[in-house]
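Per reviewer request, we include the raw input and output of the structure prediction for the construct analysed in the revised manuscript.
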Amino acid sequence: MSASRGVGRRWALRVAAVLAIAAAVHGLTIWAAPRLIMGRVLAGIGDTGSGGVFLPPMTDASQRRIVMPSPDLLYAVCPFDVSRAPLRIRADPKAPGYWSIALYASNSDNFFVINDRQAGGRPVDLVLAGPSAYATAAALPEGATLVAAPSARGMLLMRVLVADYAAQREPLEAARATLRCEPLR
């Protein structure tokens, strides 16, 4: 009987070890996957050009710079790093329909959104401060809203709804071209 108890204990220890390893791998995957995905997205954007904004062409079946892009949306992307200084985000998208500006942390969590209805026809003026600079952020420009970023790096994604791109091209492109992401001065 004591031999069978020893075998049972060894199996119980093996099962416990396998479950502990599986739990650790699962936890590490859940923590690391969003950060790795966001890191690849930010690296893929590269140099954004003027105003810190990348304006990809209208989405078609061949484009995958943004994960699962919608063919009904026109995008503007602004990667950010607020580890050294806050970022001023401004836009006045007088688009003919829906638009939104969303901010994502380095782990892909969405932490701020504003859309056309919430803006009520007024321009968007945000100051994005990183975790280390939030408490010591400089005086806000008049009319700006302070937004606390949970991570120093992340991404802004602007979406503009497109009903007929060929017919609405000029106002849609003008709407997303108003987006500016510049260091707060």
